[in-house]
Amino acid sequence: MSTEKKIIVVVQDVLRRRALSTAVRRNDDLRTTGLKSLDMVNLMMAIEDEFDIRIPQEEMIPQNFSSVGAIEVLVSGLLTQA
User: Which residues constitute the domain of residue 38?
Assistant: First the structure.
């Protein structure tokens, strides 16, 4: 499964737990889906678990989690560094 598809599955799972619409595409703004701050923290942790990475504190900024595409760029960069 591609990195993008894995991220979409993780995002959909977080959305589903909040009983929100799970339809999400690469460039959709995740902030408009109804996710709250705690949901975004849960999303960060789920991404770390899914890809067995640790997101550095300085990378835990809203811009890096604004869309599936933004998360993919972040994850790809971290996987390259590993």
Answer: 3-81
pLDDT tens digits, 44-71:
999 999 999 999 999 999 999 999 999 9
* 75 Cβ contact partners less than 8 Å away, ≥ 6 residues apart: 3, 7, 47, 51, 53
Total number of domains constituting the chain: 1
DSSP symbol at 64: G
Assess contact for 40 and 32: CB atoms under 8 A: no
CATH number at residue 30: 1.10.1200.10
Whether the predicted model's global pTM rises above the 0.85 cut: yes
Name, in order, each residue with C-beta under 8 angstroms of 25's C-beta and a sequence gap of 6 or more: 68
Question: Do 67 and 28 form a contact (C-beta atoms < 8 A)?
Answer: yes
